[in-house]
Every structure is written in C-alpha cells, then in structure tokens.
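In response to the reviewer comment on reproducibility (Comment 2.3), we provide here a single inverse folding case reported in full, input and output, so that an independent group could reproduce the run without further information from us. The structure tokens appear first.
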C-alpha cells in the first residue's frame, strides 16, 4: 500500500514546512510567536514546534497583513485582536483570487498552444 502524502490529511506541520509554505525564515516564525499571542504551536519532545492547520491559517493571515500589506507588527496585532474574522476573510479572499489567477494563467497557456497548433494547421 502506498503512503498517502496528501497534505490535507496532515494534523501537524514542522516549522520547516510552514516556513517553506510562506517563503519565510524559521526565525521569523519564532519571532512572530513572541509578537502574536494567538500563535502558540504545540511543542513536542526537545521543544520541537508542531503547527496545526489553524496555526498555519493564522500564519497566513499574519503574512498577508505584514508582508503583503506592509503593516507594522503592532497594527497587525491590533487588527487580529479587533477584527479577527475580517482579517481571516480578507486573507481567504486573496488566496482564492490567487488560485483563480493561477488557473487563468494556465488556461491562457493551454489556449495559446491550441491556437498555435491551429494556426500551424491552417498554414499547411
């Protein structure tokens, strides 16, 4: 039986995996833990961090506020405290739009190949 590597089935993610997901340094994630009290990954033996899906989602929101929108940490912390649901919805909307954009780019690429093939056939 093959091992299922579907990430949706994972319960916890390592700090290396999460850092790679958001293209940030592990040290930045550790720093964000000190700045955002909501971010408290589980600790396994030898103090190894284990991030749940909720932790990963929160990191995505923090990443959006700080890295994409350019908010200062205090402003991002305040936004999460005062309007957590709004911050999450905004991040989800951005992620959905990025996924749609990626699909459109792929569709355009595929259509470009079809059009080029069709033009080649017409030229013959």
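Designed residues, in position order:
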């Amino acid at each position: 039986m093959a091992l299922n590597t579907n990430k949706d089935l994972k319960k916890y993610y390592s700090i290396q995996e999460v850092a790679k997901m958001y293209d940030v340094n592990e040290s930045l994630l550790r720093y964000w833990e000190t700045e955002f009290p909501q971010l408290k990954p589980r600790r396994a033996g030898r103090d190894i961090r284990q991030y749940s899906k909720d932790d990963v989602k929160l990191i995505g929101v923090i990443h959006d506020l700080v890295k994409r929108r350019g908010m200062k940490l205090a402003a991002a912390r305040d936004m999460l405290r005062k309007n957590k649901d709004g911050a999450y919805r905004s991040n989800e909307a951005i992620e959905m739009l990025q996924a749609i954009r990626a699909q459109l780019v792929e569709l355009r690429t595929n259509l470009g190949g079809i059009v080029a093939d069709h033009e080649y056939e017409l030229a013959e």
